């Protein structure tokens, strides 16, 4: 029986204090590729969702903490830098309009920084300052050789000018802000990183090229230990520096097109689970690396929908110094006895739907995973089939199917072709015409299954246009003579009655049609004798 498997990889290590930094232990975790064309910058929110900008496509692609593509937002004017504040608000730089727009977590537009369009010559990277310093928003305006700082929509300060001296820039790109408010700015064409205090005063600088000049450094990000990560687009790697001393510690990734390698990395970010995301524009993907203590989240199947009766299997894979303890949660509540690395629900039912996560504890601390939403659905089943019917032209008919299952969808078909707009459990047909005759069926489906009904044949009958008793006479022989007129191609019955209530067939008429005379040889036996001509379909 098929199952859904959710895997989490967790490594734990003791962090070094600032000033005692060692190279990060980087573990390649695969990549994201779905819906990506040329990813540029990345950002994450507090729940581990990843936001990826794509300037050429004019869109932002969003993945959840388990790597599932959950949304694509389009219609932007070459989006570049992106950042998420602690409240979940989204800051998006648009190169073509020279602006930074602010959206709430649901992507409703709030406002633009400064004057709006034309505020920047080239808004490149965005950083959110610490809440303790008033949560300022920093934007690198590369062509203006300036860093602009905002509180809400208002420009509060800016620093930098063109040049090579302290506090001057030649095309500033990546920017990040430490917890104490120091701003680290990648000075791309001067191949260095400059550090400023919260007021924009120059503090120090260090060389980004070291023994390997870069010249094309882009995004920058600080981790909690005081290590600075800088994307080197030209060399296809991320360089790691001690943020205080500027000494290079190591590199992450290497140039190439294979998994785990980088081709034109330009954006990077560290998520709440210590996973480093690096855009690789020329290979159309985002590469993932776990750093030291990290929690890696994946899920299969990606859509999180499973059929009732399927096994639900949740799994963690732990690494580092143990021992570890586990507690699985459903909708935020502890699941009784679910305290192992693997949590299995055999033959899942609809009531097993929910938001699952795990709390993992070890010697170095406790971490709670992101949430994966699992929906258990009952596949469709047809209980009552649509019925074969014969009706007259112009009549009204309703075909119906009775089915059970979760969140069912319907699609009626005529002779195997979909009927536009016929998406209910019943199909109403009014003023039926002969072209509507044929074989009807209905496809009943949901996200985990599909079933096709049995065929139901519909015959549309067309009545004759001529069917009449032209004349009736009593002949000299006392027998009743009838003159009848009928359409050819149909069958008819001539019925008789003595009281207009009880009718009996007197004769069947063939399909030849036309005028003909009929003699009732039994008419002399009745005081009253009534006749009618009836079409027999």
Write structural notes for this entry.
- This protein has 537 residues and is mainly beta.
- It has four domains: 26-291, Neuraminidase (6 Propeller); 299-376, Immunoglobulin-like (Sandwich); 381-461, Immunoglobulins (Immunoglobulin-like, Sandwich), CATH 2.60.40; 467-536.
- It has no helices and 50 strands.
- Strand 39 (409-414) and strand 40 (417-418) form a beta hairpin.
- The radius of gyration is 39 Å and the shape is elongated.
- It starts with a strand and ends with a strand.
- The relative contact order is 0.11.
Distance between the termini: 54 Å
Q: Can you give the mean pLDDT? A: 89
Structure class: mainly beta
In helices, the fraction of residues equals under 10%
Q: Given this structure, which CATH class of the largest domain is correct?
A: Mainly Beta
Q: How does CATH name the architecture of the largest domain?
A: 6 Propeller
β-sheet strand percentage: over 45%
Tally of distinct domains: 4
The profile of the biggest β sheet is: 6 strands, mixed
Q: Predict the CATH topology of the largest domain.
A: Neuraminidase
- CATH homologous group name of the largest domain: TolB, C-terminal domain
Low-confidence spans? 10-19
Shape: elongated
Number of strands: 50
Could you tell me the radius of gyration in angstroms? 39 Å
Task: Tally the helices.
Answer: 0
């Amino acid at each position: 029986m098929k199952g859904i498997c959710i895997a989490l990889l967790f490594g734990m290590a003791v962090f070094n204090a600032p000033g005692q930094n060692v190279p990060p232990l980087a573990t390649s975790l695969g990549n994201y590729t779905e819906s990506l064309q040329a990813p540029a910058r990345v950002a994450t929110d507090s729940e581990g969702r990843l936001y990826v900008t794509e300037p050429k496509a004019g869109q932002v692609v969003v993945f959840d903490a388990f790597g599932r593509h959950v949304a694509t937002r389009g219609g932007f004017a070459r989006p570049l830098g992106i950042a998420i504040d602690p409240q979940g608000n989204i800051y998006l730089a648009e190169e073509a309009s020279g602006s930074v727009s602010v959206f709430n977590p649901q992507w409703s537009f709030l406002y633009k920084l400064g004057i709006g369009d034309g505020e920047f010559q080239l808004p490149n990277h965005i950083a959110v300052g610490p809440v303790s310093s008033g949560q300022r928003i920093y934007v690198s305006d590369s062509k203006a050789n300036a860093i602009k700082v905002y509180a809400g929509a208002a420009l509060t300060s800016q620093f930098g000018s063109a040049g090579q001296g302290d506090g001057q820039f030649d095309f500033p790109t990546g920017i990040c802000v430490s917890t104490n408010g120091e701003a680290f700015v990648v000075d791309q064409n001067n191949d260095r990183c400059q550090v400023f205090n919260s007021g924009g005063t120059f503090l120090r600088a260090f060389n980004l090229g070291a023994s390997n000049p870069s010249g094309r450094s882009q995004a920058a990000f600080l981790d909690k230990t005081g290590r600075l990560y800088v994307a080197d687009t030209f060399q296809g790697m991320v360089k790691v520096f001690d943020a205080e001393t500027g000494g290079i510690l190591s590199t992450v990734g290497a140039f190439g097109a294979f998994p785990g390698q980088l081709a034109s990395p330009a954006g990077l970010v560290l998520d709440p689970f210590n996973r480093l995301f690096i855009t690789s524009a020329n290979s159309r993907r985002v590469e993932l690396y776990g750093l030291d203590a990290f929690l890696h989240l994946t899920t299969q199947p990606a859509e999180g929908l499973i059929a009732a009766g399927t096994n639900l299997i949740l799994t963690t894979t732990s690494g580092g110094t143990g021992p570890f303890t586990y507690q699985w949660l459903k909708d935020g509540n502890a699941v009784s006895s679910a305290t192992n690395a693997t949590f299995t629900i055999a033959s899942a039912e609809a009531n097993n739907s929910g938001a699952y996560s795990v709390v993992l504890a070890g010697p170095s601390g406790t971490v709670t995973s992101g949430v994966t939403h699992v929906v258990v659905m009952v596949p469709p089943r047809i209980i009552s089939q649509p019925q074969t019917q014969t009706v007259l032209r112009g009549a009204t008919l309703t075909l119906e199917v009775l089915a059970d299952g979760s969140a069912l969808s319907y699609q009626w078909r005529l002779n195997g072709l979909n009927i536009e707009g016929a998406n209910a459990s019943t199909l109403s047909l009014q003023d039926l015409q002969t072209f509507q005759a044929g074989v009807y069926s209905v496809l009943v489906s949901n996200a985990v299954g599909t079933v096709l009904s049995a065929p139901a044949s519909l015959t549309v009958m067309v009545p004759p246009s001529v069917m009449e008793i032209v004349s009736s006479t009593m002949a000299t022989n006392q027998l009743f003579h009838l003159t009848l007129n009928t359409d050819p191609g149909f069958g008819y019955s001539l019925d008789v009655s003595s009281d207009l209530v009880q009718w009996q067939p007197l004769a069947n008429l063939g399909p030849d049609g036309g005028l003909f005379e009929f003699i009732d040889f039994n008419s002399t036996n009745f005081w009253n004798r009534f006749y009618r001509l009836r079409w027999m379909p």
